[in-house]
Amino acid sequence: MKNKSATSTLAVALALAFAMSWAPAFAANVKVTPLGGQEGEFCPQDRALIFEEPTGTRILYDPGRTVAGANDPRLGRIDIILVSHMHGDHVGNAHNKAPNSGTCEDPDVSVSALPTWSPCMWLTRMMSILPSRGSSAPATVRPGS
After folding, report:
1. In degrees, to the nearest 5, what angle opens at C-alpha 72 toward C-alphas 70 and 73?
2. Is the pTM of this model over 0.85?
């Protein structure tokens, strides 16, 4: 009985050691690129990061105010945009005109990126157009309508 228990313990320990030896190799394959408002710096108001997986998938995390819009030359191809929460400094209610606009202490976030409609306005409009209960008439609502 002791021999079987010791063999099982050894097998589990070896499997765990093998698995742990591969973990750093997998973690090292994700490339993380900070997108600061100033070249070579990541200023206090900067939030944007690009994660590039070994498969080539590129994730833009918290574009914030330092990504100079969709045509920012630093972006390249982006497959997914991930926003941690809906604050302007994470979503990007305003952003730089171009990389290196302003300074770390006083970034130039003069470009407004606010939508012409908000999700709340759209939901209110949708609720007003939807047929009342019991009605079978379909309703189609598009943002901005």
Report:
1. 130
2. no
